[in-house]
């Protein structure tokens, strides 16, 4: 019985003026901002999202960072425009004046300081999947800023959220790259937007080895190849075409570089 | 020697004393031989301290640009030229596609050995540097060798993943990846581990991750949330945002684990 196919697209990274592909038109995006410096394309992905959630100190980053990324505009006007819908988490990082500012604008402040068992990202993803109504769940895509770099245990915890919510499309973005999970339950088609991403890419078996992975569309394709930490993992690979396919017996992390 | 036998499994001891200023290090601890590998990302704030610890400094390709450009702001030197003359790597290794020509010329004129491996595209720059250290360190000196690496974390995720894989590929060597925020080491399943915490410069945040394969049984002491024959795997429970509560943390597991601890007071 062949595996069902899951398709992936980074069309949300295209400039707003570009006509959306059919994929982009059907997809509902939600945005989560964690507590690290905003990447330079933050205003672009903000505009794509139907729902914007800041995890605790992520609100400081939006407050400080959006005016910096839009230097030609009046900072006060920028702050009003880039107002999160929800601020969620244990509230130990958000500055009091930032919390006050967004709360006065109508942002929903959800204090989770009683729950120390799950990470801020986990709480935000749970919130979105419970509260954002999407007719077809496979059309929901959650974009996350600030999940990579910084403290390594935070990064690992954020990557673990991809594995724990393996039925939800979640993409972690930094200035340098994008990563998302390719669950073993599906065969994957990754559509490459060459103007904004690539060519460097990789497939990483975090969490467990793969005895068989097969790809097309890469410079060095895998053909029923084994991958593991301590053995081969696919890094510094190159996307050769517009479409990459991946089938594996193990969950894999796909990563692709973003163009500057 | 930092090995002794407890029951049937050898104990491996770990210390971050290299993060302390040299004068604060205990005279009683065995003298380790540090090598420093500099990869091509922003230098951590405490780079001069690492440089002073190391007997051998290797820049991986564009890591040489970083030393050339960024050391000055971390020193009290009068001018960039004095800094550049003081911080000369012994070796510059890699495929040489990132190092600027003037940087390469400067260091080679100052005596750095330029080891051009551009014909070898199979392995990462970090892998080449660690291979060199593995090849040229005599066996009897290997247990005392500790490799400090900067610039391996952050940036492109596939680079970071490959750099972490180097820890697994050379699991018999002590290799520590350092950033401004934290350090990571591999704790091989073949040993029981004792981690001596230098609380003036590291902690309290820490974690343990079964990156290569799940663990069906991990036991720790010295943490706020200790594990007791606990299972860990991606998709389920992994130990993040844990807290060190003792000067000594012990870890025993049936899987190779990555240990991380936050760094502080190192500016």
Automatic annotation (TrEMBL), chain A:
Places the protein is found: Cytoplasm, Cytosol
Biochemical pathway: Cofactor biosynthesis; thiamine diphosphate biosynthesis; thiamine diphosphate from thiamine: step 1/1
Q: Which reaction does it catalyse?
A: thiamine + ATP = thiamine diphosphate + AMP + H(+)
GO MF terms listed in the record are: ATP binding; kinase activity; thiamine binding; thiamine diphosphokinase activity
Enumerate the UniProt keywords alphabetically.
ATP-binding, Cytoplasm, Kinase, Nucleotide-binding, Transferase
CDD domains named among the record's database cross-references: TPK (cd07995)
Its biological purpose? Catalyzes the phosphorylation of thiamine to thiamine pyrophosphate (TPP). TPP is an active cofactor for enzymes involved in glycolysis and energy production. Plant leaves require high levels of TPP for photosynthesis and carbohydrate metabolism.
Entry protein name? Thiamine pyrophosphokinase
UniProtKB/TrEMBL annotation, chain B:
Q: Which SMART domains match?
A: TPK_B1_binding
Q: Which InterPro entries match?
A: Thi_PPkinase, Thiamin_pyrophosphokinase_euk, Thiamin_PyroPKinase_B1-bd, TPK_B1-bd_sf, TPK_catalytic, TPK_catalytic_sf
Give the main localization category: cytoplasm
Record pathway: Cofactor biosynthesis; thiamine diphosphate biosynthesis; thiamine diphosphate from thiamine: step 1/1
**Record's Gene Ontology CC terms?**
cytosol
Question: Under which main EC class is this enzyme filed?
Answer: transferase
Q: What's one Pfam family the UniProt record gives for this protein?
A: TPK_catalytic
MF-aspect GO terms? ATP binding; kinase activity; thiamine binding; thiamine diphosphokinase activity
Query: Which residues are in the Thiamin pyrophosphokinase thiamin-binding domain?
Result: 191-257
- The EC code for this enzyme is 2.7.6.2
Tell me the function of this protein: Catalyzes the phosphorylation of thiamine to thiamine pyrophosphate (TPP). TPP is an active cofactor for enzymes involved in glycolysis and energy production. Plant leaves require high levels of TPP for photosynthesis and carbohydrate metabolism.
The name under which this protein is listed is Thiamine pyrophosphokinase
Q: Which organism is it from?
A: Paspalum notatum var. saurae
């Amino acid at each position: 019985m062949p595996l069902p196919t899951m398709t992936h697209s980074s069309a949300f990274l295209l400039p707003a003026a570009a006509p959306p592909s059919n994929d982009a038109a059907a997809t509902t995006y939600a945005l989560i901002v964690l507590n690290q410096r905003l990447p330079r394309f933050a205003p672009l992905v903000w505009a794509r999202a139907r729902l914007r959630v800041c995890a605790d100190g992520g609100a400081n980053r939006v407050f400080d960072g959006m005016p910096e990324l839009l230097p030609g505009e009046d900072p006060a006007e920028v702050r009003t425009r880039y107002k999160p819908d929800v601020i969620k988490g244990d509230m130990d990082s958000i500055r009091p004046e930032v919390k006050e500012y967004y709360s006065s604008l109508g942002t929903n402040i959800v204090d989770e300081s009683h729950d120390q068992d799950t990470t801020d990202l986990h709480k935000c993803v749970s919130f979105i999947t419970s509260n954002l109504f999407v007719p077809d769940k496979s059309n929901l895509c959650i974009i996350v800023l600030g999940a990579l770099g910084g403290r390594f245990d935070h990064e690992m915890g954020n990557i673990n959220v991809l594995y724990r919510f393996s039925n939800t499309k979640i993409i972690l973005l930094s200035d340098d790259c994008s990563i998302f999970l390719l669950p073993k339950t599906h065969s994957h088609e990754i559509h490459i937007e060459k103007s904004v991403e690539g060519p460097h890419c990789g497939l990483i078996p975090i969490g467990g080895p793969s005895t068989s992975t097969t790809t097309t569309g890469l410079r060095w394709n895998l053909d029923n190849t084994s991958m593991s930490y301590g053995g081969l993992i696919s890094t510094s690979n190159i996307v050769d075409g517009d479409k990459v396919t991946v089938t594996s017996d193990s969950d894999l992390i796909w990563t692709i570089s973003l163009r500057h | 020697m930092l090995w002794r036998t407890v029951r049937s499994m050898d104990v491996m001891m770990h210390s971050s004393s290299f993060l302390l200023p040299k004068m604060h290090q205990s005279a009683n601890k065995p003298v380790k031989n540090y090598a420093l590998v500099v990869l091509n990302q922003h230098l951590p704030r405490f780079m001069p301290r690492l440089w002073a610890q190391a007997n051998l400094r290797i820049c991986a390709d564009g890591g040489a640009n970083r030393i050339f450009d960024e050391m000055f702001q971390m020193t009290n030197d009068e001018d960039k030229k004095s800094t550049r003359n003081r911080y000369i790597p012994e070796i510059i290794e890699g495929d040489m596609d990132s190092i600027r020509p003037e940087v390469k010329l400067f260091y080679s004129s100052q005596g750095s050995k330029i080891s051009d491996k551009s014909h070898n595209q199979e392995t990462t720059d970090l892998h080449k540097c660690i291979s060199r250290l593995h090849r040229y360190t005599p066996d009897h000196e290997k247990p005392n060798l500790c490799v400090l690496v900067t610039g391996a974390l952050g940036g492109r995720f596939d680079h970071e993943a490959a750099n972490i894989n180097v820890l697994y590929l050379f699991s018999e060597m002590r290799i520590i990846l350092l950033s401004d925020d934290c350090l990571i080491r591999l704790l091989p399943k073949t040993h029981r581990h004792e981690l001596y915490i230098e609380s003036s410069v590291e902690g309290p945040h820490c974690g343990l991750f079964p990156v290569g394969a799940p663990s069906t049984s991990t036991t720790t002491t010295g943490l706020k949330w200790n594990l007791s024959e606990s299972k860990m795997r991606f998709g389920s429970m992994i130990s993040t945002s844990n807290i060190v509560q003792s000067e000594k943390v012990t870890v025993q597991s049936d899987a190779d684990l990555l240990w991380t601890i936050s760094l502080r007071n190192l500016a």
